[in-house]
């Protein structure tokens, strides 16, 4: 079945690796980029691919509300949405909040609240969580605390909030769809794909599931893992680092086992926070 993917943050390094992979499966892609100067580089990614590539010039930093995001979704009409945008440290704290918090949450809400959107995948990172999961050792916890509180505090607050919005609202939509009798395979999938420290290595195998913080994930492997997650029945938080398993096989196995690394977070408290956003 062909799909139409709205790829937000299309000029990013992961997205430029991801775009040809999506198109090679005969999926259509609308790539959202910030400036017209970026357009030739993105258009080149669609050359000789079976899927159709469209490029939409629209700065995500201008998206301030769910309504703003909804307008783009209604214009593009995707059935899957991938958020791979990020301020990347440019523009200081103000731009980080505008992109990684405000726009990310706006697109997350708009996607989940659009019935024709069946999957929403956001690219997060391994340490984007509030609690210490039982499978983390002391070193993993120390690594996460240093990253989140000392190195990237503004980014962490933005990403963990966006992850919580995705999870809380996805669960609400799933509950409604179950009550409405929607078959399980056709219900909404909200996915937070959570790589480790990003590297420039070539794509390889993966280790997924309950893994510690501090691992590395190549951007190329991250792109392959995104495709694999979209192709499988996975829902929830997907931690992924470089390893030896085939991405699609490993992720589908997690889906069948019901492994979701968000399980030990305090979701009652998260619901309260989400209700105020």
TrEMBL record:
Residues 9-232 form the NAD(P)-binding domain. It holds the Pfam family NAD_binding_10. Transmembrane segments: none annotated. Residues 256-277 are annotated as: Disordered. Signal peptide: none annotated. Residues 268-277 have a biased composition (Basic and acidic residues). Belongs to the avfA family. This is NAD(P)-binding domain-containing protein. It comes from Curvularia kusanoi.
């Amino acid at each position: 079945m062909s799909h139409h993917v709205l790829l937000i943050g299309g000029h990013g390094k992961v997205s430029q690796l991801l775009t040809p992979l999506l198109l090679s499966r005969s999926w259509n892609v609308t790539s959202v980029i910030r400036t017209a100067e970026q357009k030739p580089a993105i258009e080149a990614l669609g050359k000789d691919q079976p899927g159709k590539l469209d490029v939409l010039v629209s700065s995500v930093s201008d998206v301030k509300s769910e309504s703003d995001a909804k307008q783009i979704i209604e214009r593009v009409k995707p059935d899957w949405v991938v958020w791979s945008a990020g301020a990347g440290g440019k523009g200081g704290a103000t731009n980080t909040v505008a992109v990684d918090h405000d726009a990310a949450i706006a697109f997350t809400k708009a996607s989940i609240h659009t019935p024709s959107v069946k999957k929403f995948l956001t690219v997060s990172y391994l340490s984007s969580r509030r609690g210490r999961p039982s499978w983390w050792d002391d070193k993993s916890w120390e690594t996460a605390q240093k990253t989140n509180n000392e190195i990237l505090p503004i980014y962490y607050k933005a990403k963990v909030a966006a992850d919580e919005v995705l999870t809380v609202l996805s669960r609400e939509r799933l509950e409604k769809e179950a009550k409405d009798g929607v078959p399980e395979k056709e219900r909404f999938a909200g996915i937070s794909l959570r790589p480790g420290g990003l590297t420039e290595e070539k794509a390889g195998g993966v280790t997924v599931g309950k893994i510690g913080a501090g691992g590395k994930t190549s951007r190329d492997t991250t792109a392959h893992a995104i495709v694999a997650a979209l192709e499988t029945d996975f829902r929830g938080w997907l931690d992924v680092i470089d390893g030896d398993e085939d991405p699609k096989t490993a992720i589908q196995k997690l889906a069948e086992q019901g492994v979701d690394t968000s399980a030990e977070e305090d979701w009652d408290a998260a619901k309260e926070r989400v209700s105020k956003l």
